[in-house]
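From the pipeline queue, job 12 of 40. The input is one protein chain; the requested action is below.

Action: predict structure.
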Amino acid sequence: QVQLVESGGGLVQAGGSLRLSCVASGRIFNINAMGWYRQAPGKQRELVATITTAGTTYYADSVKGRYTISRDNAKNTVYLQMNSLKPEDTAVLYCAARPYGSTWSDAYWGQGTQVTVSS
């Protein structure tokens, strides 16, 4: 099992920034990639950004150029720096950890952290 604990969410004005953190514990040696998903009210959960153990990153088009995902392997932590936030970025952000040989649907999930962007 892998446990994920997110932090860093909150309320920010449009144009502002937030930095989310996700600390992983447990059987983390089995994790190939980590990522962030978000779920806005009334919408399905969607992929925001991912990063592999090798450092390869992926971003959804809607956040490209504004968000940066990074990881500190020594601290078992993944970060999401969110800049130029927009009201449509309001959502619950979930950290996910994908085991080797698995898909994101089989990932471990954190409890989520609320990000609210006011206009």
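Job complete. The chain has a mean pLDDT of 96.
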